[in-house]
TrEMBL record:
Residues 1-28 form the signal peptide. The lineage of its organism: Bacteria, Pseudomonadati, Bacteroidota, Cytophagia, Cytophagales. InterPro entries: Calcineurin-like_PHP, Metallo-depent_PP-like, PAPs-like, PAPs_N, Purple_acid_Pase-like_N. Keywords: Signal. It comes from Larkinella humicola. This is Metallophosphoesterase.
């Protein structure tokens, strides 16, 4: 089970800040040190030299004060009695953390294992008081170290306090405990007897990024400029009368505006936009950019509008158009994609969809929009390859595990989109990652499956119980029915509600193949869509599967992508079609209520 405390790690350690302050070297955080080091590296080295950085170079480049901060400010806590700290380091990490030996840790003959990795155990005795530990390394080695803490005197109780980061999670080290808080399926299989029962500090793979410098620097194919680009529509409010517009410029453009008008008229309205500076410190050719969001309100139902975005003193985008939802139930259609992973193959297919289906109301992507959600260059590729289709039709996405990667949360995903803030009132479910909206006679539950399952169940039940929509759809990334991974928790918590309140279709991705099930009720096939829910999976990129076992609940499957799905609702009739990149129908279904 995942938790959004990991997102707070992202805020503490890697957040894309809007300002910079100077810190006392004695109290500098890992983030402070790395922000300053990256800035100096850009000033000192040529772009081609950034790719040659080694740990040895980094250590001679940093000041002694900075190295001290990196050796002591990664993980800190207090203990009330003398303890021994056992540090479990992945055996295959090629370079030791630079501070480990110098600080007094010694390698033992013990090993700890989980289902994937073997860890050597390093230990050090500490007196009562503050304990300060350093970074995992400069190499972004994903199986980052974890620790256990036990008393030096047998039977003595250890009280641990003042833990930093604040949302660090603690458990008991034992066989069956999980190592990474963002990977609960990865459990310990071998724990030496002397360590069992000690306090386990779980960790997050993404923390390896906090001091990443070796092989770290990237470039974007589409750097920002003073010309607005990446224009994107979303809907965070009533689709009959509102529309949200987002775009990007370089960080030198201070303000943003939208000019919009009803098509066929000359009356122009101007709406202000809020600006947010977004940072990817390792993006060497575009570290900072500004993203703008404008919320257009008071629009006419069924209205067609032209618009452009720009600033009071800068450049403007080319005009584009959008249409609001009609006030009457005249029928509508939409398109959804499975995993897109910022693929140019997906982009080539996606650009064709608007010409083939110009009537659609909006698009959706069922997670994994990109492959590494913390890399802004991948988002740049996504918008580049999409060819501007989302500046004409709103995009209503959900995050996947690649968008919310390595336990650090989906911070950059959140910065890209303005979406409804009507999700679960739980601190474990970030705003705008789970939300609901109604379009004409259809309810859409957009659920973040990377957030805790149980934290969303009551919200899902409430949305379904209070909806009078003719059609009910649920989007979430992890598919309840597939042959690769078992999502029994989702079936128990969510699919039982889909049974109770009759959700018509569920759309998912993740496993990179196409599937449409028979109507399912209580995890068994039933004869009619009126009796059960149809579960679908799709994939927006090229794919193949060597292993291809039978799935008894399947109506149709395809090994290969890319594919997209077009759904049309007209009163009580639904027409569902899946198309390949050439526009050939690969699956179709008609439901009449």
């Amino acid at each position: 089970m995942k938790s959004t405390f990991a997102f707070l790690f992202f805020v503490l350690s890697l957040s894309f800040s809007t300002c910079r302050t100077t810190s006392n070297p004695a109290t500098a955080s890992v983030k402070d040190v790395m922000d300053g080091a990256v800035t100096r590296l850009y000033q000192t080295l040529k772009p081609e030299q950034l790719d040659t950085i080694s740990q040895a170079y980094v250590l001679q480049f940093l000041t002694e004060e900075e190295k001290t901060a990196l050796a002591k400010q990664y993980l800190t806590f207090d203990v009330d009695v003398p303890v021994t700290v056992s540090l479990m380091r992945h055996q295959e990490q090629k370079v030791l953390p630079f501070w480990l030996v110098d600080s007094g840790f010694q390698k033992t003959a013990q090993v700890v294992k989980n289902e994937e990795y073997t860890y050597e155990v390093w230990q050090k005795a500490f007196p009562a008081g503050k304990i300060e530990l350093g970074i995992n390394g400069f190499d972004k080695h994903r199986p980052v170290y974890f620790i256990s803490v036990g008393p030096q005197k047998a039977g003595e109780k250890v009280t641990i306090s003042n833990v930093f980061p604040t949302h660090q999670t603690l458990d008991t080290i034992r066989v069956g405990a999980f190592t990474y808080h963002d990977w609960s399926d990865l459990t310990l299989t071998e724990v030496p007897e002397p360590l069992r029962g000690q306090t386990l500090f779980q960790t997050i793979r993404g923390r390896a990024r906090e001091a990443h410098l070796v092989g770290a620097f990237r470039k974007t194919i589409a750097p920002s400029s003073d010309q607005p680009d990446q224009v994107l529509l979303t809907m965070s409010g009533d689709p009959t009368s509102t529309m949200d517009v987002q775009w990007r410029t370089s960080s030198t453009v201070a303000d943003g505006q939208v000019k919009y008008w009803q098509t066929g008229t000359t009356d122009t309205v101007t709406a202000p936009a809020t600006a947010f500076r977004i940072e990817d410190r390792l993006l060497q050719n575009d570290r900072y950019a500004n993203r703008f969001t404008a919320n257009l309100t008071g629009l006419k139902p069924g209205g067609s509008y032209g618009y452009c975005v720009g600033s009071t003193s800068g450049k403007w985008s080319k005009p584009a158009t959008f249409k609001t939802q009609s006030a009457t139930a005249e029928g509508f259609s939409f398109i959804w994609f499975g995993d897109t992973h910022k693929s140019p193959d997906w982009g080539a297919m996606a650009r064709k969809t608007l010409a083939k289906h110009p009537e659609i109301a909006f698009y959706s992507i069922a997670g994994d929009l990109v492959s590494t959600g913390l890399h802004r260059d991948e988002w740049d590729e996504l918008w580049q390859y999409s060819g501007g289709i989302f500046e004409q039709k709103p995009l209503m996405p959900i995050p996947g595990n690649h968008d919310s990667q390595d336990g650090l949360g989906a911070g950059m995903y959140q910065e890209m989109f303005s979406l409804p803030k009507n999700g679960p009132k739980s601190p474990d479910v970030p705003a705008e990652q789970t939300y609901a909206f109604t379009y004409q006679n259809a309810l859409f539950l957009m659920i973040d499956a990377t957030s805790p399952i149980e934290a969303q169940t009551a919200w899902i039940k409430d949305q379904l119980a209070n909806s009078k929509a003719t059609w009910k759809f649920a989007f979430f990334h992890f598919p309840p029915y597939n042959f690769e991974e078992d999502y029994a928790g989702i079936r128990k918590e969510w699919c039982s509600l889909f049974d109770q309140y009759h959700v018509d279709m569920v759309m998912s991705g993740h496993v990179h193949y196409y599937l449409r099930t028979q109507p399912m009720l209580a995890e068994k096939p039933v004869s009619s869509p009126a009796q059960g829910t149809i579960y679908t999976i799709s994939i927006g990129i090229p794919s193949d599967h060597e292993v291809w076992p039978d799935e008894k609940y399947a109506v149709i499957r395809h090994k290969n992508g890319p594919l997209y799905q077009h759904l049309k609702m007209d009163g009580k009739t639904l027409v569902y079609q899946s198309f390949d990149q050439d526009g050939k129908v690969k699956d179709e279904l008609k439901i009449v209520k």
